[in-house]
Specification:
Oligomer: single chain
Largest sheet: 9 strands, mixed
Strand content: 25-35%
CATH topology of the largest domain: Pseudouridine synthase
Structural class: alpha+beta
CATH superfamily of the largest domain: Pseudouridine synthase
Distance between the termini: 53 Å
Helix content: 10-25%
Number of domains: 3
Shape: globular
CATH class of the largest domain: Alpha Beta
Number of strands: 20
Number of helices: 9
Length: 335
Amino acid sequence: MMRLRRSCPKPIKVARKRRGRPIHGWVAVDKDIGLTSTQVVGRIRRIFDAQKVGHAGTLDPLATGVLPIALGEATKTVPYVMDSAKAYRFTACFGEARDTDDLEGRIIATSDVRPYDANIRAALPSFTGTVSQVPPVYSAIKIAGERSYKRARDGEGQLPPARDVQIARFELVDRPGRDHAVFEVDCGKGTYIRSLARDLGKMLGTEAHVSELRRTLCGPFSENDAISLDKLAKSVLSAPPQDSLLPVTTALDDIPALAMTDTQTDHLRHGRAVRVRSGSTIFVDANQLDAIRDGDLLCALSGDTPVALARLFGEEIRPERVLNIECAEDGAETE
């Protein structure tokens, strides 16, 4: 007698629910010395019990100061903070070169030369404007597909290729002694302060490395608004977590906003383009639209809620990154 084989049903794949709460916004952390940026992200994730957390611009363990942290849908706006202006206050130590170009490295060269204030100030204009800079060998830049710092630790270190950076201001602000000088720098994306100290020392006929470093500004986030992790943890315990966060749109201060209708909002949230004018008819606020040029990036709003990062092309607005803030708050998937 022939037996029929029972077919086993295929297992049903169940989407794994992301742990934590769908909370959205920014917080400017005043990072302590000794912590890595990744460690700060982990602390924030635990403090807020957040589903999704990321940082906008790495700070070395030696550095303190402003580290912007994005939660939830704010992580989609991280690139706009990373591309923005930064400001630093740092101390250069003269007379020693170190392999990391900061206090954490080993000494690789020494010099008895200590520059005078007048010599330092005379050299600073050479480091403003568009400057060709060689990043430190201990940096996250990739060489042949591998991080430069990893190659250096494996004994295969080599200086990364030079690249142009923008430095708007470089000033000597204090001279606590012959061996040290304190500077303030306003600069653009990709500037390495360690390289700046190293190269300044070379120009002054000596050696130098960074002994202290503090970031005072990162895009729209300044040290005046920054909060320590300990204070933040106490604040979240005594008030709703959202009260401790800045809006998602904080990162988009320099990007024009455009109010959308409910129908337009629905189209954008589904990734579809919306028509904003046809002939003499304009379907959005005319004054807002006039301030936006063809191809410009904009933030589409539904009331005060950001809906999408989009661009204007002719008669249409086309979404680039949809921000699912309302959906997330209702418990729906945000990815």
